[in-house]
Amino acid sequence: MNQRNATVTIEELTELLEQHNIPLRISLTGNVPTWELSPSALHQGIIDDIRATIRLPPERASGCGCFHIADVWLRLPGIGLRRPDIAIYCERPPRQRTALTLVPTAVIEIVSAGYEHKDLDAVPLYLAAGIADVVLVNPETTFVTHYTTDGAVASHQAPCRLEFQSGCVCDIPTLSEEQ
């Protein structure tokens, strides 16, 4: 970055924030950036609890590998950069330093109070990018909303079990601070 020119790209700014351990995150929904504080322990704990349950059930012994990764940069068609809380893949995603371009089969977002619009606005973009299942988990309301590419929308009260079009399943835990 030129000292005289203060213009930086979103990627450069994000890299600077990460290098200096500044607790801000940015995501792009379409071309609209959203800044937010880094996630709370409640938020991260819910992610860990869900990830511990993602699996292919025994009755579906072959097929999707149900690989999952948390908080990873994705560069998706029509969306740009996103950082879903959980991305689920049938094949192991590559380990790389740059944003993944491999489209996940499913994403799960834990809705943060005050940033609800960021995740809700991303649902149609995720679906249009080819992600078959998009799940919003709201710890404030304890509702879990599951969107699919065939237009189905299912609402559940946590705790609940979800099955994805890939065959993977996961359990959404009780959503409380006491866990």
What's a concise summary of this model?
The chain is α+β, with helices and mostly antiparallel strands and 179 residues long. Helices cover 19% and strands 31% of the residues.
Q: What is the strand and helix layout of this fold?
A:
Elements: H1 10-19, E1 24-29, E2 32-37, H2 41-51, E3 67-70, E4 74-76, E5 80-82, E6 86-89, E7 106-110, H3 116-128, E8 133-138, E9 143-148, E10 153-157, E11 160-163, E12 169-172
Parallel strand pairs: 7-8
Antiparallel strand pairs: 1-2, 3-6, 4-5, 6-7, 8-9, 9-10, 11-12
Q: Could you walk me through the main structural features you see in this protein, from its secondary elements to its overall organization?
A:
- By secondary structure, the chain is α+β, with helices and mostly antiparallel strands.
- The protein has a single domain, classed as tt1808, chain A, CATH 3.90.1570.10.
- Helix content is 19%, strand content 31%.
- The strands form four sheets. The protein has a six-stranded mixed beta sheet with strand order 3-6-7-8-9-10, with helices on both faces. A two-stranded antiparallel sheet has the order 1-2.
- The model has no long low-confidence stretch (mean pLDDT 86).
